C-alpha cells in the first residue's frame, strides 16, 4: 500500500499532466476539452462507445481534483502532532489524546489499500 499522500501526489501528477479542463461529454461518444489551438471549437479528447462512459470521463477531470483536495484537507486536519497524537481528534472521554493515526486517517489509508 502506498502512503495516502504519495497516492494523492501521484493522482494529482496524472491529472495535471492531462489536458486542462473542464471536459464535456458532447454525446455520440465524443468527449471534448478546451481548445488548445485558439479556435472556437473544443478539442476532441476521446471517443467512447456509450454515454455513461463519456459522462464519467468528462466529469473525472473535475471530480478527481476535487476529491484529492478534500482528502488532503482531511489529512491536514488529522496530522501527527509530533508526539504521536492526532491534531484533529482532540481527546477521548478520559481526556486522553487520540493517537495518530486516528480512525479517520486509518479509514482513508484502508480505503486506498488497493488503489
Ligand atoms: Zn484524527
Strand residue content: 5-15%
- Stretches with pLDDT under 50, minimum 5 residues: none
**Radius of gyration computed on alpha carbons:** 20 Å
With helices defined by DSSP (H or I, 4 residues minimum), what is the helix count? Answer: 3
Give the distinct bound molecules: zinc ion
In short:
The protein is 43% helix and 10% strand. By secondary structure, it is mainly alpha-helical.
Task: Name a few traits of the molecule.
elongated; 2 domains; 3 strands; 115 residues; binds zinc ion; mainly alpha
Structural features, described:
By secondary structure, the protein is mainly alpha-helical. The chain has two domains: 1-77, no CATH class; 79-115, no CATH class. The protein contains three helices and three strands; from the N terminus they run H-E-E-E-H-H. The chain has helices at residues 4-17, 51-77, 103-111, and strands spanning 24-25, 30-33, 43-47. The chain has a three-stranded antiparallel sheet, covered by helices on one side. A hairpin with a 4-residue loop joins strand 1 (24-25) and strand 2. The longest helix has 27 residues, at 51-77. The termini are close together. The model has no long low-confidence stretch (mean pLDDT 94). The structure holds zinc ion. Zinc ion binds next to loops.
Amino acid at each position: 500500500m502506498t502512503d495516502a499522500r504519495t497516492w494523492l501526489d501521484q493522482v494529482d501528477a496524472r491529472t495535471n499532466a492531462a489536458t486542462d479542463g473542464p471536459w464535456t461529454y458532447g454525446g455520440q461518444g465524443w468527449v471534448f476539452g478546451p481548445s488548445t489551438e485558439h479556435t472556437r471549437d473544443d478539442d476532441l479528447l476521446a471517443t467512447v462507445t456509450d454515454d455513461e462512459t463519456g459522462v464519467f470521463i468528462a466529469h473525472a477531470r473535475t471530480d478527481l481534483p476535487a476529491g484529492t483536495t478534500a482528502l488532503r484537507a482531511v489529512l491536514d486536519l488529522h496530522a501527527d502532532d509530533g508526539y504521536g497524537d492526532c491534531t484533529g481528534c482532540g481527546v477521548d472521554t478520559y481526556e486522553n489524546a487520540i493517537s495518530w493515526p486516528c480512525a479517520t486517517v486509518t479509514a482513508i489509508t484502508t480505503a486506498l489499500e488497493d488503489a
